[in-house]
Amino acid sequence: QKEVEQDPGPLSVPEGAIVSLNCTYSNSAFQYFMWYRQYSRKGPELLMYTYSSGNKEDGRFTAQVDKSSKYISLFIRDSQPSDSATYLCAMRGELYNFNKFYFGSGTKLNVKP
Amino acid sequence: NAGVTQTPKFQVLKTGQSMTLQCAQDMNHNSMYWYRQDPGMGLRLIYYSASEGTTDKGEVPNGYNVSRLNKREFSLRLESAAPSQTSVYFCASSGVRGVEVSGNTIYFGEGSWLTVV
Q1: Greatest alpha-carbon span in chain B
Q2: DSSP string covering B50-95, please?
Q3: Which residues on chain A are in Cβ contact (under 8 Å) with B113?
Q4: Which of A111, B38, B73, B106 is the most exposed place for a label (fewest CB within 10 A)?
Q5: B4 chain-A contacts, CB cut-off 8 A
Q6: Distance from first CA to last CA of chain A, Å, rounded?
Q7: Do A44 and B90 touch (CB under 8 A)?
Q8: What is d(CA B20, CA B23) in angstroms, rounded to the nearest whole number?
């Protein structure tokens, strides 16, 4: 079993829709949670970062972490065609294997004009 | 501030040839990483260097070697390329542990597309 599971999609939505992207994980030692956006033929870029449980908002993006359920989400409001990309979740432990990052396989999102 | 810079961006090799992928970061980060990304497989760690002078194997180290030349530079070498090494390679770095945000997240280069024929 992978430590981080993410639905690969693809997910296709109309412009303006609210998008929900999710990851589940199995290791309760994870404390740092990240979302990356990767455009085609580019490197992943850090989009959101949260520590432990809770919500974090940045413009149209909201990241949620529910450690009790081992579940993290990224919400995109008023989605735009420019949001079309692959979204990767990532996490790491505070003490457990601190030098390693654990990635989901990515969800491909297509926002149609 | 360029972040993480990788060269070359594209390369075609013949089976058995060797090559080195170069990576440099200008963020004064301690840790550096090499990943490969394949369709359906996600990002897989090849090697990492937690600090200058140390290197460790990741999930898929076979067929690769690395050198942490100094704090800024971390190179990946394919000694005898095989078609199975056709992939996109990403170098990444992470800052000092505990330093928000750079110490707890990872920053990627733009990628190197390698084809072995």
Answers
A1: 43
A2: SSTT--EE-S--TTEEEEE-SSSBEEEEESS--GGG-EEEEEEEE-
A3: 41
A4: B38
A5: 43
A6: 37
A7: yes
A8: 10
Residues 6+ apart with CB under 8 A from A35: A21, A46, A47, A48, A49, A61, A63, A74, A87, A88, A89, A90
Count CB pairs under 8 A between chains A and B: 52
Alpha-carbon distance B117 to B23, whole Å? 24
Give the amino acid at A68.
Answer: S
Say what percent of chain B tops pLDDT 70: 96
d(CA A19, CA B3): 29
A45 with B108: Cβ contact below 8 A: yes
Token reading at A53: 């449980």
- At residue B96, the pLDDT reads 74
**Which residues 6+ apart lie within 8 Å of B96 measured at CB?**
B29, B30, B102, B103
Contact between A9 and A109 (Cβ < 8 Å): yes
Cβ contact (<8 Å) for A105 and B31? no
Per-residue pLDDT tens digits for B24-51: 999 999 999 999 999 888 899 999 999 9
Q: Which pLDDT tens digit goes with each residue over A22-69?
A: 999 999 999 999 999 999 999 999 999 998 888 999 999 999 999 999
Scanning the structure block, which residue is given the tokens 């993410």? A6
B74 burial level (CB within 10 Å; 0-12, 13-18, 19+): buried
